Amino acid sequence: MSNVAKDLVRFLATSALVMLLAVTLTFVVDPLQIFRRAHLFAAMYSQDSRMQDAGLIRSQDFDTVFMGTSLALHFRQSDIDRVLGVHSLKLSLNGSTSVEQNFVLAAALERHVKMVLWEMDDWIFHDAPGIDSNVYLPADLYRRNLGGVASYLFSGAMARESAWILARSIPPIEKPVAWLTTGVIFKFPIDRVDDINVLRPGFDVAGTYNAKKSFAAFKYITDPVRSIYLADGADYDRMVRNFERDAIGLIAAHPGVTFEIYFPPYSILQWVAMRDASPGTFEQVYNFTAYVSRRLTSFRNVQLYDFREASEVTHDLNNYADVIHHSPTIDLKVLSWLAEGKYLVDPSAPTASLDRLKAQMEAYRVEDVER
Questions:
Q1: Nearest to residue 267, comparing CAs of 317, 209, 228, 230?
Q2: DSSP 326
Q3: Cross-strand partners of 261
Q4: Gap between the Cα atoms of 38 and 22, Å rounded
């Protein structure tokens, strides 16, 4: 055998050994806890919910799952448990579509969940790519099929994270290694499930959520140059089709699970923006949410809450960072409303709250508030 051939064999053998070691490291440490709950090494978690949820579903004990978009992202599981008396798992996905939410919830419901707490709005039902076309959500990892497990075990990034978690588990170097951990360099900087995607201590709530920012966002989205985007994807027939597939299909398939669904308390400016800059969009949203309300309240295992009419919150613009996203104070308010059964939609009058919201929108005068 020539020297070149020998060198090639050595290179391939070394490469195979390195790969085998990396795969073994990832399997043993299991940073996502796909195979087992962490016990040999310190559990660490990522802010990337689309990836992290696959591990949380497998590793955590829970009887309730919480799903939603960015409006449900900063809730603490401990608050949900304390206020509602449940054992919850937060699976909210920032900017998620109904396709993603349906897929993740279906995976969680395999764990014999008793209740789904679901923050739902019309925008999640816009058309979206199929789950296997979504490059941001590792669908096969949720399925735990051969492709998903292989991509996990053979991932260089996961091997790196595993080595970092291993280093954090060695007492003499635990503190300096933890100090070096950041969410920029490493994907798993969080050591408590309750701290996943919550606002950091010392976060400037007043500087982020205030009337000035709400008005600035309102003026931005109602500018004639940009107001067309208010109607982006608002197609009644398509949204109904997606709702039936992703929401009703899931609810009907799990009659033994209670679904507590709520429409989030957008600021009144969101609806006024539609009124003033895109009335056709409001008509689409009105008709669609009227349909949704009637369909959801027809199921015995569904309770629907409509917080959009909660004027004590939605008209106080200091609660918002823009026209939609509310402060963490309102997170707690939402939980208290759910616990009290406040703003529960009456199945005998499923669109009454929507009509009250419409009346608020029609009566609201931006110029009076600005003064």
A1: 317
A2: B
A3: 118, 304
A4: 18
CA neighbours within 13 Å on the CB side: how many for 152? 27
Q: What are phi and psi of 344, to 5 degrees?
A: -70, 130
Contact 89, 56 (CB under 8 A): yes
Q: What is the CA radius of gyration of the chain?
A: 24
Length of the chain: 371
Amino acid found at 155: S
CA angle 129, 133, 137 (to 5 degrees): 100
Residue 49 is predicted with a pLDDT of 95
> Could you give the CA distance from residue 359 to residue 357 in angstroms, rounded to a whole number?
5
Average pLDDT of the residues in 61-73: 97
| Whole-angstrom distance, CA of residue 34 vs CA of residue 185 | 22
* 222 vs 103, higher pLDDT: 103
| Residue linked to tokens 């920032």 | 94
φ and ψ at residue 303, rounded to 5 degrees = -120, 125
Beta strands in 109-165 (DSSP E): 115-119
Whether the full predicted model's pTM is greater than 0.85, yes or no, is: yes
Q: Tell me the two tokens of residue 154.
A: 């053979």
